[in-house]
Protein 1
Amino acid sequence: MPELPEVEVCRRELEPTVQGRVISGVVTSKAKNPFLTAARVVRERLTGQRILGIGRRGKYLLFALQDARGAASGTLLVHLGMTGQLVVGTKALGWPGNGGGVPTDPHIHLLLELEGCDSPVLFRDPRQFGKIALLPGDAARHPRLARLGPDALGMEGDALFSAARGRKTTIKAVLLDQTNFAGIGNIYADEALFRSGVRPSRPAHKLTKAEAGRLAYAVRTVLMRAIEVGGSSVSDYLHPDGSSGYFQIEHAVYDRSGEPCRICWGVVKKTVVAQRGTHFCPRCQR
Ligand SMILES: [Zn+2]
């Protein structure tokens, strides 16, 4: 599932293609699941809008829109869900070109043709956990975004300590709770916990201030490093140009159960914490 780094990589790669361009045509699939705003409304309202840029809140991508008169006209929100991809349609990805009408790939739910651009932007999502919505007015006040905590890329030890304090849950659950900090999912929670030496099942209220500082630092560095190498390509994640990320090669514990710990050569274990498959080293993490 794409987490903060994969979404940020997508944002950075897609923005130069779409920034300043007018959406000249919109095609939607017949699928119901991805559309929080009715597909018909998405088609009608998006056509003719200019994309000013792409922002991000946690795992949400936010396309800022402007109407023909140059006034702000809301936001296109895209969440990649489990298997969502935003790609620039090219022949290499099986896209025949503009003017083809309905996409032949049934997993393409949204297609944006852009003025002066040969390749459309495609939202493809086989499992349909991804979401598309048009938000009028101030996007930050939309319920889906308003409930999100601050971005995990800027996590500070004091803020993490406060979020964990008095909580009767595990520290991993605190990291995964998007209302505390936005953007961390299963992979980066496990990786950051390993790098800080904190066991995922540790009761959150037992985290010391020093550990909170180390864990927040580990979260920031793991996320930044993952962005640098293009995210983790597990399951279906691809860059907008169809290439993949490389952070999975650097995973210390995630998806490595039974393999040797990269620090102590003990065995990486897998268990369930916060209802998620969780990877850790029993020797290095306390
Ligand atoms: Zn170890």
Protein 2
Amino acid sequence: MRTLIENVTIATMNAEKKIIKEGYMIFDENIIHEVGEGNYAGERNGVNVLDGKDRIMIPGLINAHTHSYANIVKGTTENVPLEIWMLYIMAEGKYMSRGDHEVSAALGGIEMLKSGTTTFLDHLAQDLEGLRVVANQYKKIGIRSVLTPMFGDRPYALSLPEEIDLGEMGGKPHGPSSSSAGNWKQLIEMVEDVVKNLLQPEKGISVAVGPSGAQRCSDELLIASMDLANKYNLPWHTHLLETKAQEVTAHRQFGKSMVAHLDHLGILNEKVSFAHGVWVSPEEIELIRARGASIVHNPASNLTLGSGILPMIPLKESGVNLALGTDGPNCSGFQSMFESMKLAAILSNTHTFDYTKWITAAEVLDMATRGSARAIGMSDKIGSIEPGKKADFVLLNSKVTNFVPLNNLVWQLVYGRADSAIDSVFVNGNKLVENGKVTSIDEESVYKEAVERGAFLMKKCQDDYGIIKRASPKLYDMLMRVAVQPTNRA
Ligand SMILES: [Zn+2]
């Protein structure tokens, strides 16, 4: 059945970024059929009509980088940089059961839908069965996802700027708990199993190939992972140069920059999206642009972990596709794309005193919609309110302080942190958020289970937390040596 929403303000985010002050949109339980200005003059028989008075419609926001495991381990670290934080998450990952992942995924789905995100990339270090429970959760909730198995085959201790003895915890690669160092063939088979068993775009489940980071993977694994992405025509996603320590590591490990290394392996192309890229050099920016890869900016995470601020202005000026994400809530606090948009916009202003170059609100809204859609390989399906696109959209209440008076819609959307104005959220034409609640899942039962599972998990992690705290001074000394090294950052 078709539904007409009329008298509505629409930020279409089409190629012209057209704003319709008062217009209409017609959709069904799949796609958008018609978008127009003024009154709808066509047939109304058999059409469900909704009044969009005092409502603003935007495309569903697209979170191009997060990790669902993180929803159940929020707040377990504070004021530690990534290189130490990773030890915490690897310890937590070791003890998380499939049931923990299932409830953690549900928490993330609820959080994102309620803050206006309709599609997201879940970079998750799980094998087929672990990813299956997560995929089933997303299908039940109705949110669109890109399942991205995360894996590596080099011991963690070898992915740092200096060789450092971290005992047993330094010997594990960053990947599913079943994986062991050096076993790249087994990892590729696992990811191929995920593709064969879980890829169901018609049910909202896409798949991407997701090595954890170049420094955490053998060349064989990186090359084979891109071969797999090519075989099934999938996006390829990885962390890149999140910290200065990683920039230093790249030169030690590869004898060249990290992006130059990936290009040397022949795996830098338009399928690639990089989470972070905070420490890219001007030469790396040029390579990323020339090969058509994307950068996914995660400002809240970069600030929380003290990683640095993405050089967005040089990236934009070079023409690199820029997308936006939140990263996991254990390093960003909350998966709000509205928060990401605002941080991205205001942080760029610190890059240069030349205010004529500062990033605009329209540009960050573009990152959170069209830019992210391109980064996850879904430009033809989502990211704008246009006929033929999936009916994924958000209705915001315009009678709230954020929008009164309405002087500049896009600026107020971005700078006004408009997630508090969300009225309803639709995916595939289904209303999944109404009256502040997700309609497709019993939130209370998810919270109850998460409380129980979270407490049990924390108990299991305590000994490991103690081991990490005792090892931290070694990492501190290493990081202080890294801090004074020169950088080629843009
Ligand atoms: Zn991440």
